Amino acid sequence: MVVCRVLGPTEVEAGGAGVDLGGPLPRRLFTALVMAEGEPVSDGRLAEAVWGPDPPSRAAAALQVYVSRLRAALGSGGRDLLERTGSGYRLRVPPGAVDADRFVQQVERGRRLLAEDNAAPALHAFTEALTWWHGEPYADLLAGPDVLAARSRLAELREVAIEERLAARLSTGDAPGAVAELDAAVQAAPYRERRWALLILGLYRCGRQGDTLAALRRVRALLADELGVDPGPELQRLERLVLAQDLRLLLPETPSTAPPAPAGGLAAARCFGRPLSSFLGRDRELTTVARLLAEQRLVTLVGPAGVGKTRLAVEYATTLPDADGPWLVRLADVGQPEVIVHAIANAVGLAQVADEPRHALRDALAGRVGLLVLDNCEHLVDATAELTIELLAACPMLRVLATSREPLGIDGEATVTVHPLPLRSGDGADGSAMTLLLDRIRAVRPGWTPSDEERAQVRQVCAALDGLPLAIELAAARARLLGLGEIAEHLHDRFALLGPVARGSLAPHATLQAAIAWSVELLSDDDRGLLLRLWPFEGGFPLEAAEAVRPVGSAGTSALESLSSLVTRSVVSADTTVAPTRYRLLETIRAYCQAIDPDPGDTRKAHATWVRDLAAQCAADVRGQRHGGRALRILDRELPNLRAGIAHDLAHQPEHALRTVGLLDWFWLRGGHSAEGRRLIDAALRAAPHASHANRARAYLARVISAALFADEAEVRRMFEEARVAIGEPTDDEHRALYASLQYYCAMFWQTTGQVQASHDAADEAATLGTQLGLDWIRIAGLRTRNAALIHLGHVAAGEAGLIDTIMQAQQTGQLWSAGWSELALALSYLNRATAHADPSSRAARGIDALCRALARFRHQEDSVFTLAVLYTGVHALVLAGRPHDAGQLRAAVHHHAIRLGFRPDLLRRFSSPDSDHMVDTALSPDDRDTAAAEGADLSWLDMINLLTSARTAIG
């Protein structure tokens, strides 16, 4: 199949692959043959098309060469496609192969459909036709008379297609969307009166009569001032109808072509109006619904209870200028599937439906142009879907907007998920949730202006209520009786706080609790059983967590199936933009599930068991280090769940809590949670005074690690002694492993306090025990610290060689964090030697290289604390490299990030260069230090890394 595109630069495809037509001359030849539309073109005319009015003397021979190359490029069928005819050539391509031909046919089809009052298909036809344009037609040809005529014909048809497409969009009822496009179309071609007529008609159908009259004045003035003419007949007729407010302006058909109303079919249309309260925060959703209903005939709004689906549907429906409707069918009060047809008949005003009600309804709506709003379909999804299919098939001008907790599942259905209102807008300003609450409070407190404290309370209330519009409105109603602070305080019992909905509200349920209960009661037993096990999760959960807490004895339904059902029914939300997918319950649904859970204690216990298992597995991965970065990321993501699980165990099974906080020793430090870890460890030690020897010893060790960046030297020493007492005499492998860990931690600490020989001996013992016990992480860490001690003891060459060997061993055994830890020690040695050299900048490169390798390893491990330790040492390196200003910036940035992680920046010296601050202060004047500090205060992680790596690049 050959495809030729000439609505822009010429492009050709053969067999689905692009064809290289060669240079500009063969491209002109081929385009000229396309423009001939299958007719033969003589050599002379082709020569003129290729070279202009003065072709070369050997033009015929050159044409033969170009034709030969084009045939080869077109593939095996090239000779058949490009054939010789007498004294010329002809291009034989199948019908529809040329985009210009398809464009003309599609525009004609759209005009025919529009004339037949099939606006939606016409809109699709015109839209598709216009997408084929990508430049000036026959752009590769010289501008001769024939070419200019062809371009003009196609360009005019394109202008017509633009206008007819907008006419079709108006006829579908999307006047607001059409007006937005017509404004731009009128500016692009201000003398085309058809566009002005459509704009005026669209403005009138939007109810913007002032703008309608202004547009009439503008076009009349434009034509008179610039062309000296009056508006044409169409605009003059339209002006008369506008001034008379003629109802025919609201009809998509003209009076002569409108279909007659069915005899005795419908009574007066039972339409509905807007609620009295303002409608806020849904502009994007309104636009989406309008666009989809212009393209498709069925749209379903889905979302959780109280999110505002009904209000959104009503707001959209009441803007429509359709000849009939809109009709609102409230299905919340319909309990039986067979009653749905009667509810619809009643809403549309059908008087007699006793006999064959479905046939009567189809006949009555068959000639009607309008929108049917089916509200609250979730309890009758199958029956509603069946009747909707039947009505849409029989009533070509009918559109349906449904609201439901789940889609109807009909082929061709478009779904719009209605999310809770955001607390913040994209630019960081107050979001529409806060705007709604402020607006509703002002309705009950006229003249109220919130203080800064009250604005913070507004944000707190909106966050606690998940941004659910119904919940926000009910909370605002309490502002008659309670202050914002009191409302926030009572949200722990939100269903008692949030009273019944106001009179005249569109909400289908009397209270928020009733709305949520409705959703939960519609679930199957297995789905409801899983839902009631999910409320303890804080901050969301992955699929594996749902599988772990799933009730025993679920009847054959997998956790994935039940979770999928809960998401489909808008009870659980799924964030698929992250991996793995994150699931979450709205806080209001969590509170309801907790309130109705028949065994909340068992549910909490299942959650705490999952937390313990997760902590044990991830802690092993962190120590094993090969997957340490992934494990740290998981633990950080699940930190709210870790807190909840540990809190449960502290209250009910304190020894489990003690074991968990002890296992997470390296997470507390490397994840930047040392203060919280230390607090939880102390709480667990107090709560479990009679716990097993091993669990208490492990917790004491974890407390030492968590205190490394917080406690002063004397306190850390005291903690070491407590840990040593808790471990006691190692009598088995478990206690020997704990003792080996203690020796390693002691070696680390003593090295930072100048007790280098003690550090060396403790590290050597830890490495030996690690080898005996088969614990690679202790062995490698011990070797690293022993070799670093050798350097401090004056055995620099041996220590550096040992560190290089340790790095190799760490890589071989997957101890990637220890490899980075060793690179940092090596970098410190290189930098210290460079400092003593007469030309330190020439020797700084090796140290920066080692720092960059350490940086890469710690970043891969997602270790924020030791990444800062490397960057803090980088301050030292930048001074040596002759970049003291960069060093001052980096120091300030490291200090700020350390404070954000919750520890004193000066304590980074325990793991990095102790000379960094002194070197910056010596190299910069006080004013320069202040300037560098101000510039570095807002540097990101990436900015800090770039400061260091760019210095290495500059050194060369």
Describe this structure in words.
With 956 residues, the protein is mostly helical. The chain has six domains: 1-171, Winged helix-like DNA-binding domain superfamily/Winged helix DNA-binding domain (Arc Repressor Mutant, subunit A, Orthogonal Bundle), CATH 1.10.10.10; 283-417, P-loop containing nucleotide triphosphate hydrolases (Rossmann fold), CATH 3.40.50.300; 432-512; 523-598, Arc Repressor Mutant, subunit A (Orthogonal Bundle), CATH 1.10.10; 605-802, Tetratricopeptide repeat domain (Serine Threonine Protein Phosphatase 5, Tetratricopeptide repeat), CATH 1.25.40.10; 815-955, no CATH class. It is built from 45 helices and 13 strands. It has a five-stranded parallel beta sheet with strand order 8-9-10-7-11, sandwiched between helices. It has a three-stranded antiparallel beta sheet with strand order 1-2-3, with no helix packed on it. The chain has a three-stranded antiparallel beta sheet with strand order 4-6-5. The longest helix has 27 residues, at 145-171. It starts with a strand and ends with a helix.
